[in-house]
Amino acid sequence: MPWLGFRIGRDGKKRWYIYWKVGKKRRQRALGQISRREADKELAKLVTEMDTSGPAVLSRMAIARAVDRYLDGIRLANRPATLDTYRNRLCLFVDFCHGYGITQLRQVTPDIVEEFKRARLKVNHPTTVNSNLGIVGTFFAHAVRFRWVPDNPVRKIRTVKYADSEPRVLTDEETQSILNYWHTHEKSMYFHVTRILLFTGLRSGELRHLTWNNVDLAGRSLRITAQENYGWVPKTRQSARKVPLHEDAVESFVWLRHNVQMVGCPLVVPSLSGRPKLHILGARAFERMRRTLGLEGVTIHTFRHTFASRLVRPRKLGGAGVNLVAAAKILGHANIRMTARYVHPDWADQQSGVNGLPGLGADPKADPLDVEGRA
Does residue 188 belong to any structural domain of this protein? Predict the structure, then answer.
C-alpha cells in the first residue's frame, strides 16, 4: 500500500512524495511543492490505479491511453516545457506503432522499438534519436513498475553511436549571404527575424513566444518571461532575463511592428492563426535557403552559437570583446562553463591572443650568476 512522505529542501520548502514497495524494493514518485490536500488526491489516484491494474486489465491497455496516464502521473513533478517534449516524443512512437497495426501496450516488442529507431535516424540527428529512446524507455519503465507490461522492450535496444562534432558557427561571409538570400528570394520577415536572432542570441522558442509588452524599443531591451496564455516557460530559471538590443535588432523590431503585428495578438512573430509559429523561419523556406547556399549543418540554433562567438571575440577582430560572465547573463546560462561551449574561437582569435603577449628577452648587462645582485 503506498504512503505519503515529504522532504525539506535546502530552500526550506516542503516537497511531497509517494512511496510504495514492489517486492523488496521501495519506489517513489515526486509530487513537488504542492499542498497536503493535493498530495492526498494524488495518493488516492495512485491507489485506485494500483487496485484496477491487474494483469488481465493491463494486458489490454491501449498505448495511447497508457501514455495519457503516464503524462498525467508526472505532470506535477515536471515543467510544462518538459511535459510538451515528452508528449511530442511519445506521440511519435504511438503514431509509429499504429502504422504497424499495434494499438495495445503488450504488443510492443524490441523489434518494433528497433524499427522505430531506424525510422527516426532517417530524419533526426543521432542525439535526438537517443533522446527519443530514453523517453520511450522511461515510459515503459513506468509501465513495468505499475504492471502494465511484464518487461521493458527498450531495455535491450542499444543507443546510436556517433562521432560528436563541433557545433556549427557562421562566418561573416556566410551570415551576409543568408541575409542577402532572405532579402532577395523569400519574405522580408525572414530577413528581420534572422537579424534579431543574430543580434540577440535568443532561442527559437523564446522568440516564438515573445510578446510586444516584453519589448522596450525606447529602452533598447527585451525581457524573456513565462507566457501562461500559451503554456510556455523559459528553459531554466536563468533563461528568464533581460536582453539588451543592438540598433540593427531595434530596426528589425520596428519593421515587424509595422508589417507583421496582428490586431488583438500580442506575439511579435505570430502564425496566421494568431498562435506561436511552429518554425520561426518556416521549415521549408529554411531548408531551401540551406540547400541553395550549401550550408551543411546549419540550424536555427547556429545563430545563437554565432552570436555568442561574436559577443566574446575581441574588438580588433570584429567582435564585441565581452567577458564570459556578461555573456552568460545575456545568453541566460547558469554558469560560464555552458557559455564556454558556445564560444568557438577561430585561428585568427588564437593567433591574436598569442601575438598580444608581451615580449621576453635576455638582458645583456645582467649576470645570471650574480647572486648578491639578485638579492
Answer: yes
Q: Report CA-CA distances (Å) from 219 to 216, 253, 256.
A: 5, 13, 17
Q: Please check whether residues 322 and 295 belong to one and the same domain.
A: yes
Q: Residue 82: inside a domain, yes or no?
A: yes
Spatial separation of the C-alpha atoms in residues 269 and 253, rounded to whole Å: 10
Q: Tell me: the pLDDT tens digits for 69-118?
A: 899 888 877 777 788 889 999 999 999 999 989 988 888 999 999 999 99
Nearest-angstrom CA–CA distance, 324 and 185:
37
Closest CA to 330 of 203, 184, 219: 203
Which residues fall within 8 angstroms of residue 244, CB to CB, at 6 or more apart?
A: 220, 221, 330
Given a contact cutoff of 8 angstroms between Cβ atoms, the answer to whether 195 and 249 are in contact is yes
- In this structure, the answer to whether residues 328 and 200 fall within a common structural domain is yes
Nearest to 223 by CA among 336, 209, 257, 248: 209
Residue position matching grid coordinates 550549401: 294
Residue 193 counted as domain residue: yes
Core vs surface per residue 75-90: b (16+ CB within 10 A) or e: ebbeeebebeebeebb
Domain count within the chain: 3
| pLDDT tens per residue across span 255-288 | 999 998 888 899 999 988 888 888 888 888 999 9
3-state secondary structure of 87: helix
pLDDT single digits (tens) 324-344 = 899 999 999 988 888 888 877
The residues near 124 (Cβ < 8 Å, ≥ 6 apart) are 132
| 360 inside domain | no
81/202 same-domain check: no
Domain that holds residue 270: 172-346
The predicted model scores a pTM of 0.63
Rounded CA-CA distance 148/3 in Å is 21
